[in-house]
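hey so i finally got around to running both of the ones u sent me last week. sorry it took forever, my laptop kept dying halfway thru and i had to restart like 3 times lol. anyway pasting them below in the order u listed, first the sequence line then the structure token line for each. didnt double check formatting much so if smth looks off just lmk and ill redo it

first one:
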Amino acid sequence: MKNEKAMSTLRRVGVSLIACFPFFGHANSVLSEKELRAQCSSLHFSQVHVRACLEEKANQSERDLKQAEQNAISALAQWDEDDRFSRAARASLSTSNKSFT
């Protein structure tokens, strides 16, 4: 019974995070590497300028990711859930961040 309740709560946590993901930044505007190169190439002729454009896009992506992480942390801090589930969600987010970088 306790395991079923815990699993139910963890499922709700996961669904909540997935539901909130579009609000964590520019989640709907993710471009592939090929699309980014094409976009920068259409704006600039010089390889130096294309590279600078790609670097700026990478930097912006990093800033967006950090903002999304902060938004997720803030959302988790405001949860009205049992502390162990909140800790588990924060630990999962931390593990995810470590495996990503």
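and the second one:
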Amino acid sequence: MGHGPVAVEVYAERFRSQGQYIKVTEATLTYVAIDDAGNPRPIAQETM
């Protein structure tokens, strides 16, 4: 499937009583598949 990290951007919004959405937090999460020794490894197709 791939050899590098996967980055996912997420955010959360709050709905205000005035009918507005306001962003309250955001983050970029980075996932890396590692082997038993803690080294990066390719992501196999069957794990997706």
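quick thing i noticed on the 2nd:
The CA atoms of residues 1 and 17 lie 45 Å apart.
anyway thats it, ttyl
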